[in-house]
Amino acid sequence: MKNIPILDLNLQHLNLQDEIFDAFKKVINKSSFIRGEYVDSFENEFAKLTGRKHCISCANGTDALYIAMHAMNLKNKEEVIVPAHSWISTSETVTQAGGKVVFCDTNVDDFTINTDLIESKITEKTVGIIPVHLYGQPANMSKIKQIAKKYSLWIIEDCAQAHFAEFKNLQVGSFGEASTFSFYPGKNLGALGDAGAIVTDNDEVAYKLKTFARHGGLLKGDHQIEGINSRMDGLQAAFLLIKMKYINKWTDQRIDKANNYFKLLNDIPNLTLPVVNKGNKHVWHLFVIKHAKRDELSIYLKGKGISTSINYPIALPFLPAYKYLNHSKNDFPAAYENQSKILSIPLYPELTLDQQSFISKNIIDFCI
């Protein structure tokens, strides 16, 4: 069998090639490169799909978080609680916006923030929580909302890996004061380059988001504050508008592929499969297994032509960037345990059943 990549975007894009080229010709012919009708159309359509009143597009998912942090008016090292296991954008944007990041351990089985530990992290300086719907699994938003209400905290959802996932029949992205998305090419809904967005129902928050992302003003030359330059371009918007027509089908295919892995890899010694929490719609951005000999398994699979990835090999509190916080492995035992065991195996809509069978056979051969 040919080598199997961790993700094959080429297959997806080949199927859409005619639509993409046609859309790009229109953008080029209209010189609609910065903002313009395609960006406006994307914002309107994405707001509808997420069930939100406002969508503010931006340059990437990291900017989306940073802009959202700025809209929350962080000051004087106010504290924001984030999960210990995530991509660094979740935490670095808090610090960049003037806040202090406070890590909370994650659940060992589903990788989302451990809601039983959140209250122990709250101090008089705590102002917000950033739940991350990691790998496509929604965090426990019922519990998070209860805690936020009890302590008057805001919620910013990090939905970068969970486009259109659901918690108890409600879409992720519908719970926070604002919710952020990434359209990095490898995401379930990915652009041709970097792009991001923030959604909200709050008019005042939407104004702050738009203003800060556009040099501090909504009209050219009318700068109400100092802002940044973070914009989605017309080509990315046109590209995403095409892919949005297929996202529901692709999500269903991801779910089918995940269910097939559960059948193929059921009850294999020393192998831990991911979980789907009851009432959740997991959209399977990544299918993450666990094995005590993760590195050996990865090397073994590579030798068979199967690509894997580790998302992420070092939990946030243990990165050199956060050495100044003086954390130890005992502070975040679940995140520490998972970082040495997790391994992402190929899962994408175009993955074939034969490929899944081949991947599973080789995992089983290693495990037994």
Automatic annotation (TrEMBL):
UniProt GO BP: polysaccharide biosynthetic process
Signal peptide: none
Coiled coil spans: none
Positions carrying N6-(pyridoxal phosphate)lysine: 187
UniProt KW Ribosomal protein keyword: no
Keyword terms of this UniProt record: Pyridoxal phosphate
GO molecular function per UniProt: pyridoxal phosphate binding; transaminase activity
Active site: 187 (proton acceptor)
One Pfam family in the UniProt entry: DegT_DnrJ_EryC1
Matches recorded under CDD domains: AHBA_syn
Family to which this protein belongs: Belongs to the DegT/DnrJ/EryC1 family.
Protein name stated in the entry: Erythromycin biosynthesis sensory transduction protein eryC1
Organism: Prochlorococcus marinus (strain AS9601)
